[in-house]
Design a protein that fits this description.
The chain is 35% helix and 19% strand. The protein is an alpha/beta fold. The chain has one domain (2-257): Alpha/Beta hydrolase fold, catalytic domain (Rossmann fold, 3-Layer(aba) Sandwich). β7, α9 (202-206) and β8 form a beta-alpha-beta unit.
Length: 262
């Protein structure tokens, strides 16, 4: 297990591969561990880092650190302590929100961002996320996905208050406005059958700016990286292969990345 000390607290992370840095940030149910197959798929060309946010996995747990800003501060301090420069960010659910908040605060430090399961508004989230304990959420959202027993157990390490506090914190945040503020290439990815996060309207996303694009995985739920790993990994690698600043809409040149319009 790899860890660093930030503000006298343990922050757990893992790293695979060599090359340009990628940062993976997990969602409300899980930890760094469910990123392992994706990290392995890019490890020949990239140095992939995945960390546990405050309250998740093996990172320290404290109610005072569960605000969205504290999670962004954790990401900032982690990158600073590790000496990591300009990055590509891949965030899922909570991690997608943290990623876009980080981009808003430090746009010069991020080359591109993939936001998986990003809720465009607070009511896009299923209320069950704040009313069920982590072990029930794990069974609900991870059911049927190919995942190791260890990764399932890791999901249960979550402090339920870390989920609740971050979602309550969304009342102070304009999620759609936040996404519009991103001025770097941003690829939104959603599972069509996600029971936790409502799929956004593709036409509205692409009306934002040329640097936005939406891809919907029609046979996936909350974890497209687990339910359709080969397709997800191809998409990620194609997105990373675009030139810096190039619009992810150019992925539409491949028929399989054409978004489903709803």
């Amino acid at each position: 297990m790899s860890a660093i000390i930030i503000e006298n607290e343990i922050v757990h992370y893992e790293v695979l591969g060599r090359g340009r840095p990628l940062i993976f940030v997990h969602g409300w149910v899980g930890s760094w561990r469910y990123w392992v197959p994706t990290m392995q798929s890019v490890s020949s060309a990239y140095r992939a880092y995945a960390l546990d946010l405050w309250g998740f996995g093996d990172t320290s747990k404290s109610n005072s650190r569960y605000t969205l800003q504290e999670q962004v501060n954790l990401l900032e301090r982690f990158l600073e302590e590790m000496g990591i420069g300009k990055i590509a960010l891949i965030g899922h659910g909570l991690g997608a929100i943290v990623a876009l908040l980080y981009v808003r605060q430090f746009p010069h430090l991020v080359d591109r961002v993939m936001a998986i399961g990003y809720p465009m508004r607070e009511n896009a989230l299923n209320k069950r996320l704040t009313t069920s304990p982590p072990e029930e959420l794990e069974k609900w959202l991870l059911a049927g996905t190919p995942l190791s027993d260890m990764a399932r157990l890791e999901a249960r390490k979550t402090d339920a208050q870390a989920i609740v506090h971050s979602i309550l914190n969304l009342q102070e945040l304009d999620l759609k406005g936040l996404s519009r503020e991103v001025n770097i290439p941003c690829l939104f990815v959603h599972g069509l059958n996600d029971p936790a996060i409502m799929v956004p309207n593709g036409n509205k996303i692409e009306a934002f700016a040329e640097n936005f694009h939406l891809v919907i995985f029609e046979n996936s739920g909350h974890y497209p990286m687990l339910s359709q790993p080969n397709k997800f990994n191809r998409l990620l690698n194609d997105f990373l292969a675009l030139d810096s600043g190039e619009s992810p809409r150019n992925l539409q040149l491949k028929d399989e990345w054409k978004r489903r319009v709803r």
